[in-house]
Each structure stands twice: as structure tokens, then as C-alpha cells.
Amino acid sequence: MADDKKLTTREADFSAWYNEVVLRAELADYSPVRGCMVIRPNGYGIWERMQRALDDMFKATGHRNAYFPLLIPESFLHKEAAHVEGFAPEVAVVTHGGGKKLDEPLVIRPTSETIIYSMFAKWVQSYRDLPLLINQWANVVRWEMRTRLFLRTLEFLWQEGHTAHATHDEAEEEARRMLGVYSDFMEGHMAMPVITGQKTDAERFAGAVRTYSCEAMMQDNKALQAGTSHNLGQNFAKAFDLKFQAEHGGQEFAWNTSWGVSTRLVGGLVMTHGDDVGLRIPPLLAPIEMVIVPIYKTDEERSRVLEAADRIVDSLDEWERRDPGRLRVHIDDRDGMKPGAKYYEWELQGVPVRMELGPRDLEKNQGVLVRRDTREKRPMSLDTVGEDVSDLLMRIQDDMLIAARERREQNSVRHHISYDDFRALMEGKGGFVYAGWCGNPECETQIKEETKATIRVLPDEEFRSAEAPANCLKCGRASTAEAVWAKAY
User: Fold this and answer.
1) Domain final residue pick, 210, 240, 273
2) Are 214 and 184 in contact (CB under 8 A)?
3) Domain range for residue 293?
4) Which residue among 20, 165, 175, 365 is least packed, with the fewest CB closer than 10 Å?
5) How far is CA 397 from CA 282, 349, 416, 483, in A?
6) Are 434 and 484 in contact (CB under 8 A)?
7) Is residue 9 one of the residues assigned to a domain?
8) Which of 329, 327, 333 lies closest to 293 in space, CA to CA?
């Protein structure tokens, strides 16, 4: 860092800026175990609010929470060939326990399809037992070689949904429904716009028939795979003998889905909204939505301002009882610390609104509200504080989504682009490029090798260009699909 105060700017070094924000906003810290992180209260508070919102959305769609073991028999992974091949390089294995070598090594879960579907096979007997809709909140371990706080760590927190259905169409509907739940959450709560669509075979989850993804653009114009939903077909059902008595008679294998998001979303929030001052948190996910900073010079002024701050919090509590779920307020009453230092700290931590409250404000029966997203200041009457603050928070939430969406579109290319221009763009500022693809994996592989860009998704209809691209970006042959290309985390 240039000095003790200023962050490295995003333009100077986006990666360094990101690490500094995560550390100095006290979201996370490095663990003594290489590649792992400690999630600090500020970061965990954001994750908790993400959990609560998503958990409510999952339960509203009929899912129930359960918990499955961290340790999985190694033989389970080998039952689904594509699955074991896909995860083998990332697996951590326990070979000894209780001072003895284990008869069978145990895998620390990289994901839980195998152990969950082995249990589903015990629980499902008839079509009447379906659909079975389960979610678990858990940790997983994937032995990553190159790690970055929140974005890619050896151990991370997540949720993984797992379901069993009687038909392919029901499983497909479930996979698409949960992709929609993720998209609604990311845009509605995170103020992070996403593009949804299907992954190519090269990017598909190991063991899935189809994988769908939410892709977001970060401020360095790279893509972040923010959440995925998989139609697993009958692959795992056949591997674990997950059968049911069909309504028309006879035994059939169930159809499965799985879907998940992780603490990677916290990193996505930082990279979507942060600025050169620090973090900016959308109000719905902010552990503290407004901080009141008292301003005073004498003990008498301090007493008077703090009493007024307490009255404001009491009035907000009363107002919140009439409109539940809003207004998480904190009074920064630390003594011996100048207001400017407090402003700096709360701006770094991304609290959406700051209220500055001093003796002159009390004489005018007002407080001064400062928006974290735009840093705009305006006075507000203390008589209408509950309504005014709530309205401002909702406006900030909406404006952050609008700003992020506009930035994404400004850095997206939807017109015809030559391959040379595409390569230059990927070597330069990057962005999302909507271009034709012939469907040949060789073109996909060559572009990745030459530019490090990949097909993020074959976009859903609502995100496709008005005029479908006619030719493949790489080979020039007739296009079979439009693809969104970008470099990614």
C-alpha cells in the first residue's frame, strides 16, 4: 500500500486492491493452514444475511434442511466415473484415525452427491416418496493450488441442494427453478446483475447431464461463476441404486439435481461494488445499515448528542416494529477518536448510510445523512427519521443494482467482432463478448489456449442478442449457438 490510509486503487492493481479491502475491512484473514481463511465477524455477518435470505427462498420452494457427514468412503467417489475423474485432483483423503490405518480411506467431502444419494436410496421406496427436496449448509474441502480469500480456498462454506424426482422433466424444472432462485437473490439482495444460461460440455459439472450457471461481471471485467445448478439425470441414481416403485408399476431409477452457492459470493460482492475507499455493501446484506457518528467538543455536548442518538435509535426501533425487518443501527460512541477517523473506518467497512449528528444539528432538529455508494450528503428531519432512512436504504439498494448493470453493459460487446479484435480485447480491458460458436469443442479449446477466455454460458433467451450471430468466432463456420465469452476467476 502507498501509505497507512489509502488503498491501492482498482486501476493500479485490482488484485492488490481486492486483497487489501478484504483484510482492512476485516472480512477475513489468512489462516495458519496454507490456502485456508478465517472469516471475521464483518465477513461472517454478510454471509449470515446471505444464508438467511437464501434459506427462506429455499424453504418457500419446498426444500428442507438436513446434514450429512464430512467424511465419505473413498469407494463412493469411484462409483460414478465422471465424478471421480472430475474431483480426483482436488480430493483430500484421511488414511489414519485413532492412531491406526483405516481399512478404507475417507474422503473429506469436495461435494456431497455420493453420500447423499446413497442415503436417498435407503429413504426412497415409492413414487409417493418423491420429490425429495433436501438442502444442507456445510463446509467442503477442495485442494486448490492457487488460492485467494473468499474466491478460491481449500475449505469454504456453502449450501448444496440435492433432490430426487420421478421424471426427467421434473428434474429439469427443478434445476431451472433453483437457477432462478439464485438469480433473484443475486440481483435482489446482492445488487449484482447476472447472466444465466447453460454451460458447455467442457465446463459442465462432473457427473451432470446439464449444468446451468449465473455469471456476473466484476469491476475488472472478468466473470465470476456465482452459482450453479445441475441436472444430474440418472447417473448417480444408477451408481447408488436409487430406485422407486413407479405409479404404473415396475422399478425406475430416480432423476437427480444438485445446486450450490458458497462464500465466494462475499468476494463477488466486494468486486462488484467496492471502490477506492473500500467496501460498499447493499443495504439488504449489511450487518449494520446505518451508523450514527456523534460530533462534539465538550463533555456537555457529548452527553447531549449521545442522548439524542439514543432517542433516534429508540424511535427507529418503534418505527421498525411497524415495518419489521429493517434498520440495523449502531451508535459509534467511542471516545478519544475524531469523527473523521470514524468516517474513514465505516466507509472502509461499507456501511450503507452514516448519520452525522452534532449540537448544531440538534438545534435544527436534524441529522446529516451520508450515502456510502455516492457519498452524497443531505440533512434529514429527526421527526421523520424512520421513514426517511428506510426510503434511502431502498433507493441505495436499487441504485447499486442499476449502476452495476450499466457497467456490465458498457463493457459487453454484442455486435460482430473479428477474432483478432477479440484477442486484443481479452489481452486488454476484457469484458463480456456475445459471439457465435459452431459447437465444436476444438474451437472452444483453441480460444481458451490462445486468450484464456472461456465460454461462460450459452445465454438464456432473455440475455441473447437481438440478432443471432451467424458465424463462429473462431473458425467462421455457421454458428449453432450464441456464447458469452470472458476471462474468469
Assistant:
1) 273
2) no
3) 283-396
4) 365
5) 6, 17, 34, 30
6) yes
7) no
8) 333
Omega of the bond leading into 131 within 30 degrees of 0 (cis): yes
The pTM (predicted TM-score) of the whole model is 0.95
Residues 180 and 319 grouped into a single domain: no
- Residue 313 phi, psi (nearest 5): -60, -40
The answer to whether residues 124 and 164 touch, using CB atoms and an 8 Å cutoff, is: yes
Same-domain check for residues 107 and 151: yes
Chain-centre distance for alpha carbon 434: 23
Strand ranges, E, within 422-465: 432-437, 454-459
Per the DSSP assignment, residues forming a β-bridge with 196 are 214
CA angle 299-303-306, nearest 5°? Answer: 130
412 forms beta bridges with 432
- Reading the block at residue 137, the C-alpha cell is 449448509
* The amino acid at 302: R
Residue 298 lies in a domain: yes
Question: Mean pLDDT across the stretch 255-283?
Answer: 98
Model confidence pLDDT, tens digit, residues 152-165: 999 999 999 999 99
Domain CATH for 329: 3.40.50.800
DSSP type of residue 384: G
Band (407; pLDDT cuts 50, 70, 90): very high
Check: CB of residue 406 under 8 Å from CB of residue 385: no
What span, in angstroms and rounded, lies between the C-alpha atoms of 120 and 300? 67
- 338: in domain: yes
Query: Which of 186, 214, 144 has its CA nearest to residue 282?
Result: 186
> What is the number of domains present in the chain?
3
Residues 436 and 365 in one domain: no
Same domain for 137 and 202, yes or no, is yes
Q: Cβ distance 253 to 233 under 8 Å?
A: no
CB 269 within 8 A of CB 282: yes
> Distance between CA atoms of 130 and 121, rounded to whole angstroms?
12
Q: What is the CATH number of the domain that holds 128?
A: 3.30.930.10
What are the tens digits of pLDDT across the range 291-317?
A: 999 999 999 999 999 999 999 998 888
Which residues lie below 8 Å from residue 208, measured CB to CB, with a gap of 6+? 230, 231, 232, 233, 235, 258
Are 337 and 359 in the same domain? yes
Same domain, 221 and 85: yes
We report the CATH number of the domain holding residue 458 as 3.30.110.30
Distance CA 86, CA 176 (A): 23
